[in-house]
C-alpha cells in the first residue's frame, strides 16, 4: 500500500516518525512524507531510508486563512495525484486540512494523531477563545473524516470527548511515539550532578521556569551543571536570544543550540527536566528514560504519563519554580535515590515505551499487518 505521512514540521517527521515509517516499509508498503521545508534540504535524507519526500506549503504557527486555504488546496491536489491508500497525519494544520483534502478525494483511510493540543486549546483571552472555537469546528470535521484517531494521553482524549469532537469508537490510545531502545541505550550516571532540558525554546515548554530554577540551584551548588539543548522558534511564545544570553554570560546555563543527535547531552546529565505546560507524550523524556535517567516534569497533560511521582522521578505543578528547585535539590543531595529512580525509568521505557510495541499498535489499527 501507499502511505502518506503528513506533518507541518519536517525535522519532526525525520527525527520523531522515521522509526514508524521504516516499519511501514519493512512490512512491504511505500511511504511519501510531506513537510514544510524545501526538498533540496531533505529529499536525500529521507531517500536514504526509502522514504519519498515532498514539500508542502504550510504556515505552522500562522492564522492567516488565505495561507490555510493554500495548504488545503495543495493537499487536495496531492491526494488527487498520488491517491495514497492510507494517511497518517499529525500536528494541527496537517491533521485538519489533510483529513478534509482526503475526504474531498474519496479517501476514507485517514488516521490522525493528536500529539498534544497546544497553547490555543488551554489559553485565555478573547482572541484565544475565538481561535479555539474555530479549531474545535475544524477538529470535529477532521475526526468525522477519519477512520480512527490516535491520542497519546487521556487528557487530550477527554478534551475531545467532552467537547463532542469525536465518537468513542474512533479513539485509540498509544504510548507516545515510543523510543528506539537500540539507539538509546543505558549510560552510566555522571560523577557530578547535572540537569538537562531539550526542546524548542518556547515558553510553553517551561524553559523560563527551567532557567530560573537553574539560577537558584547554581547559587546553592556552584559545581552542578545545567545544560540546555534546542533551537529558537517562530512560535509567539518563543524565548528570544537576548533573554537567554544573561544566563549564559553568568555561567548558569551551558547552551548547545539545536542538535541532530541528543545522545551525547543526555549522557552528560544525571536528571532530565521538562517543566512543559502540555505535551502529547514528550519524546525527549522517553529518550532520557531509555538511557537510564531520573525525570522531573510537570503534572500536566502528556508529561504526567511518563512519571509516577516518587518512583522514577517527580511531578511538579505547572509554572512552579519553587517546586522544581525543591526536587532538583533532593536529587543533588541524595544520589542513591537518583540512581534508583534512573533504573526505574529504564524499566518503564522497556516495558511501556519501546517503539516496536507502539509501532505495532499503530500498524494494527491502520490494517498494515
TrEMBL record:
<feature type="domain" description="Glycosyltransferase subfamily 4-like N-terminal">
    <location>
        <begin position="3"/>
        <end position="153"/>
    </location>
</feature>
<protein>
    <submittedName>
        <fullName>Glycosyl transferase</fullName>
    </submittedName>
</protein>
<dbReference type="InterPro" id="IPR001296">
    <property type="entry name" value="Glyco_trans_1"/>
</dbReference>
<dbReference type="GO" id="GO:0016757">
    <property type="term" value="F:glycosyltransferase activity"/>
</dbReference>
<keyword id="KW-0808">Transferase</keyword>
<feature type="domain" description="Glycosyl transferase family 1">
    <location>
        <begin position="188"/>
        <end position="345"/>
    </location>
</feature>
<dbReference type="InterPro" id="IPR028098">
    <property type="entry name" value="Glyco_trans_4-like_N"/>
</dbReference>
<dbReference type="Pfam" id="PF00534">
    <property type="entry name" value="Glycos_transf_1"/>
</dbReference>
<dbReference type="Pfam" id="PF13477">
    <property type="entry name" value="Glyco_trans_4_2"/>
</dbReference>
Amino acid at each position: 500500500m501507499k502511505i502518506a505521512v503528513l506533518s507541518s514540521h519536517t525535522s519532526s517527521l525525520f527525527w520523531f516518525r522515521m522509526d514508524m515509517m521504516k516499519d511501514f516499509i519493512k512490512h512491504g508498503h511505500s511511504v511519501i512524507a510531506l513537510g514544510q521545508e524545501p526538498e533540496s534540504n531533505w529529499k536525500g535524507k529521507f531517500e536514504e531510508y526509502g522514504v519519498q519526500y515532498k514539500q508542502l506549503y504550510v504556515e505552522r504557527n500562522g492564522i492567516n486563512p488565505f495561507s490555510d486555504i493554500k495548504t488545503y488546496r495543495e493537499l487536495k491536489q496531492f491526494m488527487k495525484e498520488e491517491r495514497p491508500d492510507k494517511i497518517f497525519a499529525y500536528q494541527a494544520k496537517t491533521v485538519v486540512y489533510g483529513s478534509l483534502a482526503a475526504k474531498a478525494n474519496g479517501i476514507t483511510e485517514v488516521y490522525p494523531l493528536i500529539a498534544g493540543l497546544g497553547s490555543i486549546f488551554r489559553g485565555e483571552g478573547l482572541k484565544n477563545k475565538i481561535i479555539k472555537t474555530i479549531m474545535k469546528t475544524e477538529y470535529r470535521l477532521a475526526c468525522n473524516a477519519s477512520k480512527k484517531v490516535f491520542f497519546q494521553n487521556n487528557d487530550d482524549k477527554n478534551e475531545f470527548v467532552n467537547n463532542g469532537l469525536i465518537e468513542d469508537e474512533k479513539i485509540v490510545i498509544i504510548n507516545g511515539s515510543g523510543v528506539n531502545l537500540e539507539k538509546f541505550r543505558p549510560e552510566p550516571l555522571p560523577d557530578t550532578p547535572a540537569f538537562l532540558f531539550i526542546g524548542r525554546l518556547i515558553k510553553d515548554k517551561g524553559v523560563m521556569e527551567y532557567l530560573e530554577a537553574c539560577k537558584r540551584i547554581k547559587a546553592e551548588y556552584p559545581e552542578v551543571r545545567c545544560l540546555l539543548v534546542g533551537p529558537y522558534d517562530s512560535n509567539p511564545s518563543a524565548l528570544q536570544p537576548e533573554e537567554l544570553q544573561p544566563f549564559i554570560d553568568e555561567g548558569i546555563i551551558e547552551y548547545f543550540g539545536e542538535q541532530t543527535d541528543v545522545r551525547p547531552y543526555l549522557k552528560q546529565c544525571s536528571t532530565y527536566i521538562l517543566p512543559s505546560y502540555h505535551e502529547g507524550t514528550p519524546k525527549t523524556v522517553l529518550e532520557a528514560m531509555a538511557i537510564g535517567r531520573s525525570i522531573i516534569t510537570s503534572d500536566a497533560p502528556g508529561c504526567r504519563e511518563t512519571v509516577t511521582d516518587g518512583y522514577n522521578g517527580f511531578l511538579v505543578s505547572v509554572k512552579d519554580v519553587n517546586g522544581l528547585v525543591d526536587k532538583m535539590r533532593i536529587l543533588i543531595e541524595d544520589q542513591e535515590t537518583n540512581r534508583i529512580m534512573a533504573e526505574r525509568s529504564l524499566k518503564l521505557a522497556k516495558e511501556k515505551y519501546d517503539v516496536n510495541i507502539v509501532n505495532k499498535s499503530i500498524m494494527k489499527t491502520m490494517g498494515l499487518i
